[in-house]
Each structure stands twice: as structure tokens, then as C-alpha cells.
Amino acid sequence: MTAEDYLKNRLKNCSSYILNDADKAFLKNHGVEAFVYKKLTWKKFRKWKLESECIERTKKTIHLALSKNEPLKVVFPIGGYKLWRLASWPEVDWAEFFNIAYILEYLSPLAAVYKPGVIFSYYVHTLLMEKHDNLTTKEIKQYMVSFGALINFFKKHLPKNLKLEIWKDIDLYSRKEYFKTLDVVYAEVKKEYEFWSKEKQARYQRMAMLNLRWEGKQNWTTLSETEKKAKFKMAAVYEAAAPRLIKVQKQVKGSDKVLVFVNPTKEFIGIGSTRGSIVKPWIGVGVLEKRGQGFIDRILSPSQWQKVQNQNHKAVKTELIPLKNFKEIRVYPKRFNFSSSQV
Questions:
Q1: Residues 105, 329: Cα–Cα separation, whole Å
Q2: pLDDT digits over 273-305, tens only?
Q3: Distance, CA of 155 to CA of 296 (rounded, Å)
Q4: Could you give the number of structural domains in the chain?
Q5: Is the Cβ–Cβ distance between 271 and 142 less than 8 Å?
Q6: Which one, out of 117, 281, 321, 331, has a CA that is 20 to 30 A from the CA of 21?
Q7: pTM of the full predicted structure?
Q8: Residue 44 covered by a domain
Q9: Distance between CA atoms of 299 and 309, rounded to whole angstroms?
């Protein structure tokens, strides 16, 4: 199989699922509800142990949807931007392609057995990025337009009962209302920040250091080191504040939604970003890793990308997706070996 054939197959068939004998036996013995839960928490996709709260929440959500014979709603939050440090910025690249294919593959067994199907939503933070990362509205719009275009290519091949959609913060709030509400929560979290553990503060500030754009919506290039540290703290607090907005809590994270993310929490099932990656797609680069006669989808973090970008690889031309960052795909002939610090 060539790289082009592999990519075509991922695009066209990632949402197709044929029940095997084990599936049929499980359905016969345990029913659809248990099957849906089993596939949502399948170790083939799940990267971490489930929290007891997540297990309880997920089971209740499945039961609620199936008891009403309604589509199961699944939400995956993402950042509405491409990391400005990457060559593919400000548009999507193969990282987003691989993540979409991976999630559709993950959900395909559910659509195969449950007739009302699945509504999958990427919940996208777009307004937050202006405050959190100092990005311009133009940069965010460029990302969202390209992301929507990429999703449309997948939609052409979906079964009728598997819906794929984008759900944005601007769909919940007007700009004015969002920023006003965010600032109220920000003030609350800023007080809490002082009582966070040093480890938690450091984790949030590392994300801020990666994402903050110094020459963006505002020019922060001339800030002193003390002022820059204050910006890191600001971004960390905004990161923690955004999920606590009332409409996000009630609608995006409502009891009628199965919550899925790259990393696990007490509410979210942690499935990574692809079969072989746990890097968030909007801050990563998508490449293929040759594995025997096949390929593995990989999303590389900035540090991983820096390590391998000059290593031996083949740049394969492709016309599969007519967007800016899809004219070729890098194929690496050897298996990657990254330390945990590079993820």
C-alpha cells in the first residue's frame, strides 16, 4: 500500500465498521447499551485508566440517550488555532486530518449498532484565544475556515447516522457577553491560582509559554522579563477559567454529552489524538510513520518535530485534500522513539 492509498482509505473508510463475531456475541448477551459503553471505553483507543466519576457519568449519559431513542452526543474540545511556531500556521495540517479520522473510527461501531446514531461535535475555543494566546481574529478565522473545509471532505463519506459538526464558543455567547463573563470567572480563578500546587502552576505556565504569541493582537515584544512572567500567569488563569463559564458547564459539558479529550479527567475519557499520539492536533504536526507494509498516523509536538524534521524521510506528493498544507505528507521509514518529556 502506498502512502497515497493509505490516506485515501483513512478519508473514505474511517467511519465504516463491520461487526465481527465477538461483537455479535456481545450484543446478543449484553445488549446495545453495554456495547456502546464498551466501545467508548475500548482500550484500543483509551490511553488512560478511567476515573470512577467518568465511568458513572458516561454510563448515565448513554442510558439517557438510548432510553429516549435519541442520537448519542459526544463532545471533544479543541483550541481554535494552529500554533504560531509551526510552518503550517495558521491553517490545519495532517495533524487535524489524522485526529478527525481517528475519532470517526472510534465512533464508527456505535453508529453501526445504534440506529439513531451519534452526533459528534468539536467544541472550539475561538474567542478565548484572543485573550489567552494574543492571537488576532484574522488568524483564528483562517484556522476555522480551513478546519471547516477539512471536515467537509470527511462528511462526504459518513454513514447517515453519524454526524460531524463544529460547535464554537461564539455559538453560546456574543463577543461582548463572552468576554464580560470570562473576566468575572478570571477574577475568581486568579485568587485560586495562589493556592494551586507548584506543580499545577508550572503545568499551566508551560502551556502558556508554548502558546503565547508576543507579536500578535497586541505587541508584547518589548516587555520586560517580569512583565512576560505576568503574561504567562495571565494565560494560565484564562486556561483554567474558560471551562468554568456557565453556558459551557450547562451545554457543552451537560449531562446529555459524552465527554472525550486527548487527556483524561474526572469527566473526560482520554483517548489521545491518534492511535500512536497524545499530542493535541492544533499544536502538532501530522506525519506518517512506516510500520512494516503499513503506516501509523503520528502527531508530533513542537519538540518532537524539532528533533526529527531533518531526519531521513520521504516527502510524498498528494492531491487528496486541496488545502494549503496538504500538498505532501512526510513519511518516516523508522519507528519513532521519543521520551515522555517530548510528548
A1: 21
A2: 999 999 999 999 999 999 998 999 999 999 999
A3: 23
A4: 1
A5: no
A6: 117
A7: 0.96
A8: yes
A9: 13
